[in-house]
Amino acid sequence: MRTIILGVGNPICGDDAVGLHVVQQLRRRVDDPDVTIEEAMTGGLPLVERLAGYDRAIIIDSIRDGNAEEGDVRRLTADAFTSAADSHPHGIDFGTALSYLKKISDEVPDIVVIGVVIGECELAEQLSPAIAAAVPCAVEMVLGALER
Hints:
single chain, alpha/beta, five-stranded mixed beta sheet, globular
């Protein structure tokens, strides 16, 4: 089964870069020729286009949830992201982009999203302490998703 792991974020927007930090650690722990690990500094349609040709996708990104603590890590399915209701901080929302993909392709991979709850994004090149502490949990969740 061909799998892509995508860490999403902006490296100069502080906690928004959490997905990038997670994939940096995964590169040291995953050695499987059927698993591709990449960074994505975009959302919406360009992100969804990168899923083409894979059976499974694991996306790690920051999410917002006013009812959760910063640093909470969640395992979500793509169904959790509906058009225009996505709490994603990047351009066109993930749900809308995914709905477009489903309309134009019969080959939509199984998608798992590992979301790390963040607060406001600030201009910074490092993660806040709460989000940095969540990175190992997110790494373990990705490794668990790979085993399924």
